[in-house]
Specification:
Blueprint: E1 13-15, E2 25-31, H1 42-55, E3 63-67, H2 71-82, E4 87-92, H3 97-105, E5 109-113, H4 116-127, E6 132-134, H5 141-158, E7 165-169, H6 174-186, E8 191-197, E9 225-229, H7 231-245, H8 251-264, E10 270-276
Parallel strand pairs: 2-10, 3-4, 3-6, 4-5, 7-8, 7-10, 8-9
Antiparallel strand pairs: 1-2
Helix pairs in contact: 1-2, 1-5, 2-3, 5-6, 7-8
Modified residues (N6-(pyridoxal phosphate)lysine): 41
Pfam family, one: PALP
InterPro entries: Cys_synth, Cys_Synth/Cystath_Beta-Synth, CysM, P-phosphate_BS, TrpB-like_PALP, TrpB-like_PALP_sf
């Protein structure tokens, strides 16, 4: 009999049938919304908690605390409950109501602050008291390890070793770091492409961090190319994915898909995989799909 934790990973890899500019270039989406918590963040959340427990980092009586923009918080709230751990999640006040309510449904305490940087500072200050264990996804090697041991191998297996380009949105950078390390070990010619927001754009789940907040797990040598995507491009692509491909996902997925399509337009042949980070129903209270029919 499987437990809920056993259902994390082994998500579907599906081909987009309408967006590719030529038949010799195939574009696939890794549907991470099929994880039990609804996003790619189930993988690192599970690894960070189980490995911290195995090492004895979480002492009896300690609560967990973490800064999150949403999906990691939902995953941590779900998995903390399965391990009977208390958790406080610190989020920007701009986070969608769906995210807050989902975390609270799992029994988490949710604290809203003015920005993601402020959330990280708040979590670090409370962890310094010794009463909380901060998982710190931005510096925790278990974040990238989850993708090195699961996401990367799944993509390699499910493309029958034919992948030529891997595209991922960049937030904590755990997904792109872990997948890059694994895929490059299999075939150094695979191109690793990161998606970042263009200047002045705000895309939930994708960040271009100030130097002081750059994730410590990030190694720029593991990324072959950075593509900047505007908020408008990410929005249009999220709507196109739903309307043309039947893939209902959030804005960060729209950003990664837009970057994948840009790569597809530049090559004559190849197999591109991008990460579809979560599901679109997490954004129904945001403006993302307000004008989807227009």
């Amino acid at each position: 009999m499987a437990t809920l934790l056993d259902t994390i990973g082994n998500t579907p890899l599906v081909e987009l049938r309408h967006l590719s500019p030529r038949p010799e270039v195939r574009i696939y989406a890794k549907l991470e919304g099929h994880n039990p918590g609804g996003s790619v963040k189930d993988r690192p959340a599970f690894y960070m908690i189980k490995n911290a427990l195995a090492r004895g980092d979480i002492r009896p009586g300690m609560s967990l605390i973490e800064a999150t923009s949403g999906n990691t918080g939902i995953a941590l709230a779900m998995i903390a409950r399965l391990f009977d751990l208390q958790i406080e999640l610190v989020m920007p006040a701009s986070s969608t109501r769906e995210r807050v309510l989902t975390m609270q449904a799992f029994g988490a305490k949710v604290t809203l602050v003015e920005s993601m940087e402020a959330a990280r500072d708040y979590a670090a200050e409370k962890a310094a008291t010794g009463q909380y264990f901060q998982l710190n996804q931005f510096a925790n090697p278990d974040n990238a390890l989850a993708h090195y041991e699961t996401t990367g191998p799944e993509i390699w297996r499910d493309t029958q070793h034919q992948i030529t380009h891997f595209v991922s949105a960049m937030g904590t950078t755990g997904t792109i770091m872990g997948c890059s390390r694994f895929l490059k070990q299999q075939n150094p010619a695979i191109q690793i492409i990161g998606c970042q927001p263009a200047e002045g754009s705000c895309i939930p789940g994708i960040r271009k961090w100030p130097e002081a907040y750059l994730p410590k797990i990030y190694d720029p040598t593991r990324v072959d190319r950075l593509i900047e995507i505007s908020e408008a491009e990410a929005t249009r692509m999220a709507r196109r994915l739903a309307a043309e491909e039947g893939l209902f996902a959030g804005m960060s997925t729209g950003g990664a898909a837009a970057a994948a399509l840009r790569v597809a337009q530049e090559i004559n042949r190849g197999l591109i995989v991008f990460i579809a980070c979560d599901r679109g129903d997490r954004y129904l209270s945001s403006p993302l799909f307000d004008a989807a029919a227009s």
